[in-house]
Fold this sequence. Notes:
Elements: E1 2-7, H1 14-17, H2 20-27, E2 32-37, E3 50-51, E4 61-62, H3 64-74, E5 83-94, H4 97-102, E6 108-113, E7 118-119, E8 129-132, H5 142-153, H6 164-168, E9 186-189, E10 192-195, H7 205-214
Parallel strand pairs: 1-2, 1-6, 4-7, 5-6, 5-8
Antiparallel strand pairs: 3-4, 9-10
Bound molecules: adenine.
Amino acid sequence: MRFDIITIFPQLFDSFLDASLIKKAADKKISHFKVHNLRDWAFDKHKKADDRPFGGGAGMILKPEPLFKAIKAIRCKNKKTNTKVVLLAPAGRPFNQHMAKNWLKNDQIILICGRYEGVDARVEKIIDEKISIGPYVLSGGEVAAMVVMEAVVRLVPGYMGNPASLNEETFEQDLYEYPQYTRPESLKVAGKNYTVPKVLLSGDHQKIIVWRQKHRRKI
Ligand code: ADE
């Protein structure tokens, strides 16, 4: 699976792509990530990717031509490649775990990070989906792009050390995760003792399954 990110702030992705499991996925060639600077497709000498809105109003919006050109250049030319073009914007469809799973069938996902007050509306003609990561306004789609990439990449086969843990986690079966504990068994904080539920130390797998099922909350 391959992610192409179109942004006017490519440097925002440096540390995200250079650490943790995302880097491991890239190193293992499970996923590929490429960040593209939208200004590279701007035609004027100042490499201007944004402009004032017709009709007036506050702020700047992303120009259409650089985005049209960028998508055309980045889209995989092989007809068999299943490419999805996604615009990240606060007015988009709310992203969720089911969508993350569904996106696994794509070979290439192009993520357009909107900026400023928005994107020229004609760009919506050539995108497949407009996605929001929540009911709040960020100053751009960059953080949202990182959120959706992380949610999708960790589901790509071969990414997780223990694939069974994917089925048990939050949102699978529409239930939240059960509480988890690790060492120490007993913890003293500010004079209070916090202990691990005895059943988890019992070694009785059947009882542990029942306890965990009981302690999962419905979404
Ligand atoms: N860009 C600005 N706000 C956003 C949001 N909530 N989700 C996705 N992209 C955004």
